Amino acid sequence: MSLTQDKKKRYRSIGHNLNPVVIVSENGLTANVIDAIEQALFDHELIKVKVNVGDREDKKAIIEEIIKQTKCTLVQSIGKMILILKENPKAKEKLSNIKRPF
């Protein structure tokens, strides 16, 4: 899914105040990490993930694998933080970072 510039701007402004809900360490992507990302995306729709690996190429490969396995959209990547989105029409308003007012 491609995002318009207006939507990206809106999601980045929401994501600015979010803390990372999942941290990917040097161990890389395991099934448990992918499951945690998918659950967080299901509940919150828009989340931050910290990719805490040293090598830039490894980080890029891990980000691409997260996007591929979870079928989400990369909104923004700055340093070790990525902001990803997967819209869920059944998301609860109290949990969704997109639907709840800030």
What does it look like?
The chain has 102 residues and is α+β, with helices and mostly antiparallel strands. It has three helices and four strands. The protein has helices at residues 5-15, 31-44, 56-70; strands spanning 20-24, 46-51, 73-78, 81-85. Strands 1-2-4-3 form a four-stranded mixed beta sheet, with helices on both faces. A hairpin with a 2-residue loop joins strand 3 (73-78) and strand 4. It is globular, with a radius of gyration of 13 Å. The two termini are 25 Å apart. The model has no long low-confidence stretch (mean pLDDT 92).
Total of helices = 3
Q: Write down the oligomeric state.
A: single chain
Tell how many strands the DSSP assignment holds: 4
Largest sheet: 4 strands, mixed
Strand content: 15-25%
Terminus-to-terminus distance:
25 Å
What sort of overall outline do the alpha carbons produce when their principal axes are compared?
globular
Radius of gyration: 13 Å
The topology string of helices and strands comes to: HEHEHEE
Portion of residues in helices?
25-40%
Strand order of the largest sheet: 1-2-4-3
List keywords for this structure.
single chain; 102 residues; alpha+beta; 4-stranded mixed beta sheet
List the helices and strands and how they pair.
Layout: H1 5-15, E1 20-24, H2 31-44, E2 46-51, H3 56-70, E3 73-78, E4 81-85
